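Handout, section 4.2: multi-component inputs.
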Amino acid sequence: MTTLYVLDVPENLAVPKVADEDPDVTVRRVGPYFEITSAGPIAVDRRATGCRHAVWYSCVAGLAGARIVQHDKDALRLEPR
Amino acid sequence: MDHLVKGVDHAAFPTFDPAATVRFYRDVLGFPVVHSICAAGWGPDDHPDFIHFFFDIGNDDRIAFFYYFGVEPFHRLDRGDVYAGFGPEVPMYFVNSRHLAIHVDSEDDLMEYRRRLDVSAWPVEMQVQHETIESIYTHDPNGYLVELTRALRPVTPQEDLDAELTIDALVEVASGPDPTLAKLLTRKAELIVARAADWELARTGQAGR
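Output:
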């Protein structure tokens, strides 16, 4: 599974919310983290999150079975590894 | 183990321009002079005569300077500060990585320091605000990068946990070959799975008592 962890702090909340709009993505909690999983790729549109750059580029807390193929001003995209 | 320390007693830096240093810290920023030592040089190294002087940076913490009489700067490089100079091969992100950040409590306080700096010879060079902090930056007369910063929200307990997991992963990854952020994030995910749920349970349990 492609898995992305995001810490639950106010400025990160839009990241799991936007990721969850993809029906193939599941979001659940592991302690104070959001665990965002998918059998395939995960994509998050930065503008949809409203995150500004400092938060956007530091929102990834952990990666399992995944590699980041894009993390720029437009999107965060992960693919299965 | 017990965490017994009480903040910064003083952080000390050399200066070749004590007059400008006093103007910057005392007269522009309004940091009181709180201590100074006038010392004749002594010892086997022919240590020069010197003045060691201190400014209060709040919270009873202090920034201190050494001025050595008769000593000229040791380098003439453009980048860096009077303590350490760098050539053009050294990128600016590295040169600017070492800096002193002084805390203020509010936007009003930050803007008060911005006003004081902007009418001086050392105006604010950069003001940065993102979701969690707001900071202003300038270089002092010695080339030292000084930041004044305020938090836009308090640090949450889960950020302390997250920092612990990051540092544990960093120590492991940086101790191995070819450290990368991708390796750190992969190791950190394992630590999240191993420790984050228990951390929250322990914390919720404590809060319920």
